[in-house]
Fold these 3 entries.
Entry 1:
Amino acid sequence: MAQIGSFGDLTFKVSDKFVRTFDGMSWDFSAKYATHDRHIKADLIEYMGPEIETISFSMVLSVFLGVTPLKQIKKMRKMIRKGYARRLVIGGKVYGNYKWVMEKGSVELQRFDKKGNLWAAKIKVTLKEYPKR
């Protein structure tokens, strides 16, 4: 089994019997500027510092890919509700300057069996930068 990366104890892995990885990852970063009005001149902007960065991605969770969707959803929900701050590592490289928190998750429940067991879901996750104090 190849481990692609991790966010704390949420690991991204792939094998011929198991797939739990991300798709469509995006990383947003920006700076904060103040605008000062000036008479008869163009406004003046002043750099105030970096904004908090975000990373977002989606994951397909399916019993057909060797994953128990509800178990993984509960795990990520707990990470959000408890405010776990962890490093994001992909391919052995640490992303960001320090740690991240899982700020938001949005789940699309896609497939159920005849007993109501969840077979497949797609979750969209947003991580927010957690800078050093």
Entry 2:
Amino acid sequence: MTQLQRLQKKLAQSDVSSIIIESAVNREYVSGFTGTAGALLITEQDALFITDFRYVEQAEKQSPDFTIIKQERSMAEEIAEQVKKRGLQTVGFEKSHVTYAQFEQFDKYIEATLEPVSGLVESLRLYKTPAELSIIEEAAKIVDLTFDHITSFIQPGVKEVDVANELEFFMRKQGAACSSFDIIVASGERSAYPHGVASTKEIQKGELVTMDFGAYYKGYCSDMTRTVAVGEPAQELKKIYDTVHEAQEKAMQHLGPNMSGVEADAVARDHIKAAGFGEYFGHGLGHGLGMEVHEAPRLSPKGEQMLEPGMVVTVEPGIYVAGLGGTRIEDDAVITENGNKRLTHSTKELLIL
């Protein structure tokens, strides 16, 4: 069953019988189109792709299951015309992606009841197909290769930004289109910044260096974090590292179906609390991963959703002590019938470079 067919089946079971999709990620997921302009109008029977002259040929090649309509006026007017032709009485729109200005245009031209819809396509994206999992595995292999490479590049005096650039360049050489988010490289006291985007700071002996990076490959993301030491670190930094390492391994061992994101998070969080670092672990354990680097489900104290086979998540506990430093270790994993399959395999033993 194609993504389009899965969505049409979902529409048949929902309160709306048609939906407008303009968000780039959802549009690509349902249609396969990788361009930057266009809207889908999907009913239980029809699949229309409206785009301007620049993308008509591309849409015809990438979206063979869709009827391609060349846009001759505003997108809202084109959609309205197709809604009228089909006598649609109710049309859904993506409430998380449509701006108020866009809604005003829809409301002006579309002669049907507009219904805000939340998570219809995203609920399908939760469960990765074998083809999607194969791509994500390849994206994960790229970051493993990249980590192996970067350990020979890092040395005292090298700037964080140079490390980030090297990570980016190497991932592209392995086939990635780009990094899947702004690469984080944080050393020394800056390693206590959970989202310490690379700066011009020079790495010094005795410091921990946290690197959080991912490959964007064939439309899908990987996301891995490793922390290394440059020279021998202080005992307190080693204790932080060991605690995070143990917590991350415990979470990976317990992660599986029929547990909630709250329960998964608690495995790592309880270990970190018991070690006396509870106040320094301020974010959730992880998040979903796919076409976007942050998707559902959430592994956090608020992650009530149950984990099920086919979901891909990150597992990334961390400890961040201001004025001292921090550690985060992160792997990608797919939930299986009996547990999980780890997708990233780089060593998690503390490397002293």
Entry 3:
Amino acid sequence: MSRLSNRSKGVICILLSALCFSGMSSFINLSGDVPVFQKVFFRNLVALIIASTALLKNKESFKPAKGCLPYHLIRSGVGLMGVFGNFYATTKMASTADAAILNKMSPFFTLIFSAIFLKERVKPRQAAAIAVAFVGAMFVIKPTLSNVELIPSICGFAGGIAAGAAYTAVRHMGNKGENGRFTVFFFSMFSCLFTVPYLIFDFHPMTKEQWIYLLMVGLCAAGGQFSITAAYTFAPSREISIYDYSNVIFTAISGYFFLGGQVPDALSFVGYFIICAMAVWMFLYNKKEHSLDNR
């Protein structure tokens, strides 16, 4: 891999991340009727162990960078809300790909929150792309009372909003020089501490298969987190972020072959096309703007 360019390494890492998060969605679904709180605990427990080991191995500090603690708390709070929304949608929706595409609204909301809190300018064309992507999300959510999946769809969409807010906090901490491994550690520890009381007072017994599936949820989540962190150390977002949408393709394929032949409906496919088209358009637009700025 050393002969590859940094951009190629970034693309490989972000594709690996997308594949890991796709596996996570499948294992969430396969684990069955285990409560969402329990699933979220195992998702973060494995990541906590791996992040702690990585910090110890590299002899890095278990303390946040100066001025970053409030942002870690914000990132962890809204990030955990995003995980709950995504897990609930993944568990309750007939198509895991629908839940995945709603979660992929997060980059658009990162733009909005960055404009509000980090004073980063959103250009008119970017605002238009956000508006059109929102329309695409409505095709997936299908906001009518006849939609039996309306509440899970809204939770998935809210999870995408919360993830966008979390990524904004991560972006701000990255600008302050915070260690990415510590960020994963703090979020995982926060999530485990938040969910462990639920397990103490209302733990649902699991079969051997469910234990295995939830451990795989944690392994896939950790693999996804570390892979996407590595991806953005190799190459900037404007060059590789579009490849993260391969997660929707991977999730749709695994849903069809491993989760009982899941096939999204026609309206969902329209929504996928609109959201992905806006993501591609923003990707190309950002690259063009960056090229003009560097002239």
